[in-house]
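Continuing the series of single-chain predictions for the mutant panel. This is the parent chain; the variants come on the following pages.
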Amino acid sequence: MRVLVDGYNLIRRTPLAESERLGLEAGRDRLIGLLRTYRRRRGHQVIVVFDGTTHSRCTVTGVTVVYAPSADAAIGRLVRSGDMVVSSDRQVALSASQAGATFCSAEEFWRRLAGADAAADDRQGGPDWRSIRDKGDEEEDSGRPQPKKGTAHRAPKAERQRRFRLNKL
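Parent structure:
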């Protein structure tokens, strides 16, 4: 899956804004570093688009960095069906959905990005499987009826497909 990121939009809507206060380059470097780690863990192709004065493109350790006079227009040209677009801009969301891509807000992507970092930290230490098993045994012995599983209403197909793609992040 390709992940297209509206760079400045993600920076300014997340805690990365603190890095940007030191300068635009500091914010960009911090974001690119996080996206490199994300790419290594998940294996997705990552393209980050920034507003710039001229068109240019480079690759930094597997992350493609694109500069364009309008990042929104550049994302509109790059997006294709099956892509994941990360931005909180409504116009970018509209162009992504028209192209058949899945849309994810900057805040939601940040939560998933931060969650992936936390999950990686947990895997290094490993969970305490005995305590998890013991808690499950206590719940079975409680004698209370277990609630039904699943939802009473199935989400529309488009929403299920969107959730499936988001879970791939």
